[in-house]
Amino acid sequence: MKKILLVEDEPFIRKLVLNTLEGQGYLIFEASNGFDALKVAREETPDLILLDLNIPGMDGNEVCKKIKSDPLTSDAQVIILTSKSDQISFNESLESGADDYFLKPFSPLELLEKVKSFLEHKKSIEGGDLPFAKISFCNIKELELLEKEQLLIYAKDLSKIYWEEVGKSKQLERTLQELKESEKMKDLFLAIVALEMETPINILQGHLELIENLSGNISLPQEIEEYLASINMAAHRLNFLIQEFYSFATMKSGIAKLKKDKINISDLLKELLEDYRGKAEEKRISIEINAPDSGSYIEGDYLRIKDAFSRLISNAINFTDENGRVLLECMEDKSKVEVRVSDTGIGIPDNQKDNIFTPFFQIADSYQRKEGVTGLGLSIARHIFELHGGKISLNSQAGKGSSFTVTLPKFHYDKKEYLEELRAIYPISAESASDIPLQEDKQILFYAQEFSRLYSNETMKVKQLEERLQEMEMTFIQTIASLVQAIDLREAYTGGKHTGRVANYARIIAKYLDPQLLEKKDFIYSLLLHDIGNIGIAEQILSKTDKLTKEEWDIIKLHPQIGAEIISQIKFLEPSLLSVRSHHERWDGNGYPDGLMGEEIPLPSRIIAVADALEAMTTDRPYRKALAPEEAKKEILKGKGTQYDPSVVDAFEMAWSDLKELISGKA
User: Residue 640 and residue 635: Cα distance in Å, rounded?
Assistant: First the structure.
């Protein structure tokens, strides 16, 4: 941390300089006379000294000479602060060793800029003409008014930066609101998709039931019975997935309206214990409860809260081996109820704890698929608790078990109403003060202090909004990733991992081509969304096991345009629009949908084209077996300069050892 020594005998001026520099990350020391200045300079060895010329004990020039002649302090940069604006005074200060000369009354913004230039860039004027301030000469009357004038300049500067911060925070609020609207539209879209998917599944299950009824006592060939059983199982599984997906989307979009029931948490947990006792006994798991008999009441939506705790208990049983233990505990105080669901199961590794509430996150794929877990349960539970003003936390150790702690307020207030109350009492006295003639020192100082406080508040608000914006972006990306995974699952032969593999290959190629791409939003979003248009392609085409007809292929070729159309409705994702539309263009201009060629094609699209081809060639398809990695490499090299960008293919060659390792692991 950079150190600054402020030497100033006037308390008002010292306070103004401190207010100016506070919050900039500097360590600031003070002295009010020349002797103290020398003592502090030797003890603290500051990087920069702001030195008033007229101080008690010895003047600033004499102090500066001693500082510059002392080996312990000679490296310190010195800026003289003075109201003397003549050339002689300026030259005397430079001769004493000063690095710069700053006139009073000073603008805090200009002083801050000067300080930053010295501490960050070590600039010095090293002689030359005096940079005169607006007042080149001060008579006796002007000197008498110096304190008021300095305060007024300070107040005006604070007013300026305060309103700049207000404008910045308002812009961030608008951006945040737009993102919230986009997030809501996206979640509504997910909910609609889930409902649309539910209809054909219900029809399929109805037809299966009809077949069973029609067959009656007819003995069907064993092979057909196995097919029907498999179809029935798959339909039930898919219906379960759709219900989970719909629950998740409605929670996130705000479609779900919460009721205000009086809920006895103790009774609810006892009811759930009985519901799950049979499942626990099947695995020889003991399930116990420790809750007050008198009841622990909260206000909330009974069915939603029950659903959330049901998911926690189900998870605990699913991930606990035979002869294990699940414990439900309930505690309360005057304002909240706390519930803990603990198990002696497999636990969660430290490197995966941060992702445990992320949608579709899975700890151990094979185990979860066996237990019928989607990776949405904990995410849905967390959203339910948060909608009730609560929170959920995790304490887990791999191999020893997990404990989820839920804290719920007994009475939950509406955040919007609370924010309106805050706005009603937000201080506005300084907002109208800029039009009031300021006459007295106390009034000017009050004005400055008021703007200083408001500016600090606005700076904090901007920081919080920026952090919230980043959180919203991350949540948005995670949810879109969930949608993409759901789309991938429609192509059974890719194992639901096509997009992830393409993204991994593309990132490795980009690392060798231009590492800065890995930080750019258009590239990141393009990797995630390049095939999102497949949501508009009929499933019977996507999952077809034979070669596609020309008509079917023409439909498949529409997916880049469909993807671009979806993205165009969400401003947040606009950086990736052109790349998503163009990822099937060819370097020679013979691609689709627009026949772009060469560098007309966005760079992310050119990288995805190579990564997509590599993934397709090295993955089994219904109509052919996967190529060996080296064969796939030869095919891509053949397309250099025709199908693929030569520079991307060169990066692909440089990255080959990394790519080959990834292909072998089928990440």
Answer: 9
Sequence-ordered strand ranges (E) for 155-305 = 261-264, 286-290, 297-300
Give the 3-state secondary structure percentages of the chain, helix then strand then coil, rounded to 5.
60, 10, 30
Tell me the C-alpha distance between 142 and 316, whole Å.
78
Q: Are 226 and 270 in contact (CB under 8 A)?
A: no
The CA distance from 324 to 342, in Å, is 11
Residue 115 near residue 157, CB atoms below 8 Å? no
Query: In which region does residue 666 sit, left (phi positive, over 0), alpha (psi from -120 to 50) or beta (all else)?
Result: left
Strands 391-397 and 325-332, how do they pair?
A: unpaired
Phi, psi (deg, nearest 5) at residue 357: -100, 5
Nearest-10 crossing angle of helices 646-654, 498-513: 90
- Residue 180 has a pLDDT of 62
Model pTM above 0.70:
no
Tokens of 474: 């991350």
Q: What is the pLDDT of residues 522-566, one digit of tens each?
A: 898 888 888 888 877 877 777 776 778 888 889 989 999 988 887
Q: By the 8 A CB rule, do 427 and 379 touch?
A: no
**Mean of all residue pLDDT scores within the chain:** 76
128-133 mean pLDDT: 35
Q: Which residues pair with 222 in a beta bridge?
A: none
Model pLDDT for residues 405-441, shown as the tens digit of each residue:
999 988 765 544 444 444 454 444 433 433 333 334 4
Neighbours of 420 (CB within 10 A): 10
Determine the length of the chain. 667
| Cis previous bond, 593, omega within 30 | yes
Question: Are 619 and 500 within 8 A, CB to CB?
Answer: no
Q: What's phi and psi for 230, nearest 5 deg?
A: -65, -45
Cβ-based neighbours of 372, under 8 Å, separated by 6 or more: 237, 240, 318
